[in-house]
Amino acid sequence: MNACACTQVTKEVLPNPVSVLIDDPDLDYASARLIADSKADELLKGPMLLGWYDAKRGKFSPDVECCSEEKPGWIVYAESRGGTLSVDINDEEYVFIYMDTKRP
């Protein structure tokens, strides 16, 4: 997984971003993921993670290199597969995109 060199991750390119602020300088990916999963559980009936971004480590998944002109490839990938909710932790320090598997 490489850092995306195409475009920056900003709130403006995220699908339905929900901001979460965590005052913990030692926050890591694993802890951020648990927080994001919990938030997604509150907001969706059947959340499934489709993509994520870790600014601290400069990594993202899926490792999709192609980008649109407006969005990194991992966001385009998640949205094209039904991603409708972004949990944005600490202003794009960590971002997780989910789809709802139990939408009507």
Provide a descriptive summary of the structure in words.
By secondary structure, the chain is α+β, with helices and mostly antiparallel strands. It has one domain (11-100): Dna Ligase, domain 1, CATH 3.30.1490.340. Helices cover 22% and strands 26% of the residues. It has 2 helices and 5 strands. It has a 5-stranded mixed beta sheet, with helices on both faces. A hairpin with a 4-residue loop joins strand 4 and strand 5 (94-100). The protein starts with 16 loop residues before the first strand and ends with a strand.
Number of helices: 2
Q: What general form does the structure show?
A: globular
Which whole number gives the mean pLDDT?
A: 90
**Tell me about the biggest sheet?**
5 strands, mixed
The strand count comes to 5
Count of domain modules = 1
What structural class do helix, strand and pairing data support?
alpha+beta
Approximately what portion of the residues adopt beta-strand conformation?
A: 25-35%
Query: What is the CATH top level name?
Result: Alpha Beta
List SSEs in N-to-C order.
EHEEHEE
* CATH topology assignment: Dna Ligase, domain 1
Low-confidence stretches: none
Q: Would you identify the CATH architecture?
A: 2-Layer Sandwich
Strands of the widest sheet, in order across it, are 1-4-5-2-3
**Gyration radius, to the nearest Å?**
13 Å
| Estimated helix fraction | 10-25%
**Spatial separation of the terminal alpha carbons:** 34 Å
Topology (elements, then pairings):
Elements: E1 17-20, H1 29-43, E2 47-54, E3 59-61, H2 73-80, E4 85-89, E5 94-100
Parallel strand pairs: 1-4
Antiparallel strand pairs: 2-3, 2-5, 4-5
